[in-house]
Amino acid sequence: MLDRALNTIALPRFGRDDGVPAGWAVSQGLVDYPAAVAAMEDRAAAIAEGRAGELVWLLEHPPLYTAGVSAKPDDLLEPGRFPVFESGRGGQFTYHGPGQRVAYVMLDLTKRRRDVRAFVAALEAWVIGALDAFNVRGEVREGRVGVWVERKTPGAPPREDKIAAIGVKLRRWVSFHGVSLNVEPDLSHFSGIVPCGVTQHGVTSLVDLGLPVTLDEVDAALKASFRAVFGEVEAVSPPV
Length: 240
What we know:
Shape: globular
Order of helices and strands: HEHEEEEEHEEEEEHE
Number of strands: 12
Largest sheet: 9 strands, mixed
Strand content: 25-35%
Radius of gyration: 17 Å
Distance between the termini: 32 Å
Helix content: 10-25%
C-alpha cells in the first residue's frame, strides 16, 4: 500500500552514488533534548571524520520549546510554560512534545549532493511522501519552510495549517537536526509560541485531521518515503 501511494507523486532523488544504506534508529519513550543534541553533535563529527555512518534517528521529546538561529524573543509568548532551549538549527521557535515524531537526520552531503536548497526540498518531499500514504496532501509554500495542509470547512474559506516543521544545520557538509511531524501532540502546547514566526496560519496533526494513526504506522510511512527519496536504510541502535 505504501509503495502504491508513493508512486502517485514525483519525488526527487537525493541518494548516495555508492548505495551505502543510512542507519535507521527508533528510540522508545521520551528522550531528553540536551542529551539528544549532544548525541547528534558527536555523531555528525564522527560522520564528517569517516568514523561513523549516516543516521536517521526517530524519537519523541518531553514538552519543550526550541529557538532556532532566527528566533525573535517576542515570539516566545509564554516563557515559563515549558523549558526553552537555544538551538543551532535554522528557523525560529518550534515545539516538541509527546505524540510528535521527531526525525533527526545526520547525512553526509559530500556523499550525496552539496546543495542545501535541494536537500531541504528533499526533506520536504520525504514528509510529503509519508503523508501521501495516509491520503493527506502535504504541500510547500514559497517563503514558508515546512509542510502544510489545506483545511476546507463547508461555509468557511479554506485555511492552511502546518503539519510538519523542518530545521536543519550543516557542519562540514554533514546535516543534523531535521523534521518534526505532528501525529497526535497536544496542539494547545503550540499556543506558547508563534510557531516558526508565522501568525496567519495554524498547526494541525494527523489525528486532528481525523486519522487515528499510530507512531508505528507513521514510522513505516516515513521509512518507505525515505527510501524513495534518499535511498536504503538499515536498522541500528539509537545513540541514546
